[in-house]
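User: Um, any thoughts?
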Amino acid sequence: MQRRQFLTGALLTAAGALAAAPARAAADGPWFDLKPATDDSVFRTASYVRPMVMRLAASADEVWAGLVADRPLAWCTALDGHYTSARPFGVGTTRFVTVDRVLHLRERFFLWNEAERRHAFTVLQTNLPLFSEFAEDYRVEPIDGGCRFSWTIAFSPNKATAPVLPAVFPIMSKTLMDGLVRDTERHFGTI
């Protein structure tokens, strides 16, 4: 885990050092605005889209409960997050997430469907100027013996990070995103 955190932190810090974007001042440091996604077309149009599909040995309700818990995705060692909106959650709900203790994300959900166990958010701001847009989509569907959890991450780099992202993305995908899948499968088991 320490190696992954080091690699992810080094990559994010290096990319952030190369980037320059207008920051909106915040009491706790600079925040960089992203183009907000308003619908799920971002998962077709973003520069980088990484779908992760897991067949988990847990009910769809159990996995969904972990996504909407006070500390969502608590089983993922690279993530530390909490909702910043009061319940009941829905479209417009906000969340704050830290990735590998380096990257901070302020998120807002633009899709929330309890009946279908699906929600998707856009990142409004980050503390590092890496992206022009960033969104994630979570879908949990019941299947025989458990559920299918589809987790899609989509983002586009900003102009400053676009030249380095083709080299960085495969490493980030291997270290961070594969780690999210491993943590999820370890926590719930697989079928």
Q: What stands out?
A: Residues 2-188 form a domain with the Alpha-D-Glucose-1,6-Bisphosphate; Chain A, domain 4 fold (CATH 3.30.530.20). The chain has one domain: 2-188.
